[in-house]
């Protein structure tokens, strides 16, 4: 099944084309990595996939026609820059991954709790669930944001510049 199909994606930065007429098709249950040198347009291309630029179809529907709340249940985006400046408990940040499904941090259903716990365990962040996010190291914070994205349980997860360090730690646990 085709999960995402994008055609004619383009992005220009300071009159310099970084992405020009790019196309791709992602099938369900696949892992695709976009590799290239710094400044080559990888992150803008990933952003274009979910922004509806060019011709983008998510599960066969034009992405521009999908309501943001519904799109959030189909596709999660983990941006390259993920600042955290307030002392929110880690558990609340991960619980935000269930928001598109109707779950709020204080009102998670049993299913939301199971999904939340699974994401926390997969990213090895359960042991600091009560810790304030603004006290975490960069690698710990990256794992928390990955857990939040995994908690969405979307069929598509687009992650920009997920560091090798944070993915290695997740696999080792």
From TrEMBL:
Superkingdom field: Bacteria
Domain (ABC transporter): residue spans on this chain: 20-158
InterPro entries: ABC_transporter-like_ATP-bd, P-loop_NTPase
Gene Ontology MF, one: ATP binding
Keywords, ordered alphabetically: ATP-binding, Nucleotide-binding, Translocase, Transport
Keyword Nucleotide-binding assigned: yes
Pfam families in alphabetical order: ABC_tran
Keyword Nucleotide-binding: yes
Function per UniProt: Part of the ABC transporter complex HmuTUV involved in hemin import. Responsible for energy coupling to the transport system.
Protein name (Swiss-Prot/TrEMBL): ABC transporter ATP-binding protein
The organism of origin for this protein: Croceicoccus esteveae
Organism classification: Bacteria, Pseudomonadati, Pseudomonadota, Alphaproteobacteria, Sphingomonadales
């Amino acid at each position: 099944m085709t999960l995402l199909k994008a055609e004619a994606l383009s992005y220009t930065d300071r009159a310099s084309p970084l992405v020009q007429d790019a196309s791709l098709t992602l099938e369900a249950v696949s892992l695709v990595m976009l590799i290239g040198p710094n400044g080559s347009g990888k992150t803008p291309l990933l952003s274009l996939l979910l922004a509806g630029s060019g011709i983008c179809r998510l599960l066969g529907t034009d992405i521009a026609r999908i309501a943001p709340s519904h799109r959030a249940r189909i596709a999660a985006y983990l941006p390259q820059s993920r600042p955290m400046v307030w002392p929110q408990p880690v558990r609340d940040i991960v619980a935000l991954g269930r928001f598109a499904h109707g779950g709020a941090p204080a009102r998670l259903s049993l299913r939301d709790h199971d999904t939340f716990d699974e994401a926390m365990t997969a990213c090895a962040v359960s042991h600091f669930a009560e810790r304030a996010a603004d006290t975490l190291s960069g690698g710990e914070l990256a794992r928390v944001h990955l857990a939040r994205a995994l908690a969405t349980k979307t069929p598509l997860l687009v992650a920009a510049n997920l560091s090798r360090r944070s993915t290695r730690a997740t696999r080792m646990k």
